[in-house]
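User: Predict LRMDA protein's structure from this.
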Amino acid sequence: VAFVICRSLEGLKTFSYLEELILDNNLLGNDLLLPKLPHLHTLTLNKNQISFQRNTCKILLDHLAEVVPSLQYLSLLGNIACPNELVCKDKDEDDYQRYRYFVLHKLTNLKFLDTRKVTTREREEALIRGAFMKVVKPK
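Assistant:
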């Protein structure tokens, strides 16, 4: 196993049968573009630079829904988009749960998000309210 910091994801298009992809610690942002990877079921993007600025995270999640339709496990821990009270002191469990609803609204096939299994109740809430969960708390 070799660990390499990515500068370009261009070469991934030759691996159309790829099932797992770990892109942790690569300074990747919301402009991440993956080629169509129909068999990819696991994607980790931990500790990158993905945020909820403007509509860019929505665009990224829409892109993932299109190019990785088999995605079942996604991890975004350590990104600004993933509000975690251990990383950011002004975030709490409610912020994290709203984030989960929003992501699950966009990526309906996920079975795991970050380190937690997606529950039936979460999936139902995501269908009903997920589109509105991108709201940030006022300071």
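The first strand starts at residue 20 and ends at 22.
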